[in-house]
């Protein structure tokens, strides 16, 4: 990494979370210090399998992913994350740095690419840009039959806006951010309701179906719930 000057006028959004998937212990430690110093909350995975688990069970604002990992190739990991519904902006770090590698990375679902060695300031600037993009897209989410505005707590459907409570919004947004993923009740209890009792999940699924129709949330027997099919 280089010693570039960090832009002084803006940091990441408050409490921005980053998933760092990097097996080089020395580089990982340097990146953690750099990111923590720029006010990110950092979770580290030294293996692809752990990165896959964290990426699919936690909510992040941005992912930093190494190209070469010991157990899963970085691009295979990224494809798996995307196929399982992870939409989080992702920057891939690569030692190759040639046009063919850049094309392969972007075609695999990455949002940005940076070749090693890189400048600290450029890395942070790219992450800030990805975080801003995530904030913009994360507030408006596609749901069956309409669009969910997280800030306004409403779903716009052909007949007009439907107001939601804070907890209804939290549940629907959790499902909509991973539209292809099935969530267990326990996962939804933690992610959408801050660890409240398991019964709360079924209760708010019922409320949302009553307001938006039964197809807004699909029950997957023996597993849990997922967002209904998008048209």
The parts where pLDDT drops under 50 for at least 5 residues are 2-9
Query: Nearest-angstrom radius of gyration?
Result: 19 Å
User: Which class of secondary structure composition applies to the elements?
Assistant: alpha/beta
Q: How is the biggest beta sheet arranged?
A: 5 strands, parallel
Helix coverage percent of residues? 40-55%
In terms of DSSP E residues, the strand content is 15-25%
Strand order of the largest sheet: 2-1-3-4-5
Task: Provide a descriptive summary of the structure in words.
- 32% of the residues are buried.
- A five-stranded parallel sheet has the order 2-1-3-4-5, sandwiched between helices. A four-stranded antiparallel sheet has the order 6-7-8-9. Strands 10-11 form a two-stranded antiparallel sheet.
- By secondary structure, the protein is of the alpha/beta class.
- It contains eight helices and eleven strands.
- It starts with 16 loop residues before the first strand and ends with a strand.
- Helix 2 runs parallel beside helix 3 and helix 6 packs across helix 7.
Q: Which features would summarize this protein structure in a list?
A:
231 residues; alpha/beta; 5-stranded parallel beta sheet; 4-stranded antiparallel beta sheet; elongated
SSE blueprint and pairings:
Layout: E1 17-21, H1 25-37, E2 41-45, H2 48-57, E3 62-66, H3 74-83, E4 90-94, H4 99-107, E5 112-115, H5 120-138, E6 140-143, E7 146-149, E8 154-157, E9 160-163, H6 166-176, H7 185-193, H8 199-212, E10 217-220, E11 224-227
Parallel strand pairs: 1-2, 1-3, 3-4, 4-5
Antiparallel strand pairs: 6-7, 7-8, 8-9, 10-11
């Amino acid at each position: 990494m280089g010693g570039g000057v960090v832009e002084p006028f803006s940091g990441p959004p408050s409490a921005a979370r980053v998933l760092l998937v990097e097996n080089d212990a020395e580089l990982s430690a340097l990146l953690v210090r750099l990111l923590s110093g720029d006010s990110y909350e950092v979770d580290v995975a030294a293996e692809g399998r752990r990165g896959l688990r964290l990426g699919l069970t936690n909510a992040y604002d941005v992912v930093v992913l190494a190209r070469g990992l010991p157990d899963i190739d970085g691009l295979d990991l990224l494809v798996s994350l995307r196929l399982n519904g992870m939409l989080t902006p992702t920057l891939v770090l690569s030692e190759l740095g040639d046009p063919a590698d850049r094309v392969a990375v972007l075609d695999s679902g990455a949002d940005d690419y940076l070749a090693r060695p890189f400048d600290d300031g450029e890395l942070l600037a790219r992450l800030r840009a990805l975080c801003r993009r995530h904030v913009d897209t994360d507030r408006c989410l596609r749901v069956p039959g309409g669009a969910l505005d997280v800030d306004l707590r409403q779903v716009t459907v052909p007949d007009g806006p439907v107001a939601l409570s804070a907890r209804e919004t939290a549940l629907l947004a959790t499902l909509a951010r991973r539209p292809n993923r099935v969530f267990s009740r326990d996962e939804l209890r933690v992610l959408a309701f801050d660890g409240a009792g398991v019964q709360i999940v079924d209760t708010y699924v019922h409320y949302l179906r009553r307001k938006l129709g039964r197809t807004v949330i699909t029950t997957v027997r023996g597993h849990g719930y997922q967002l209904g099919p998008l048209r």
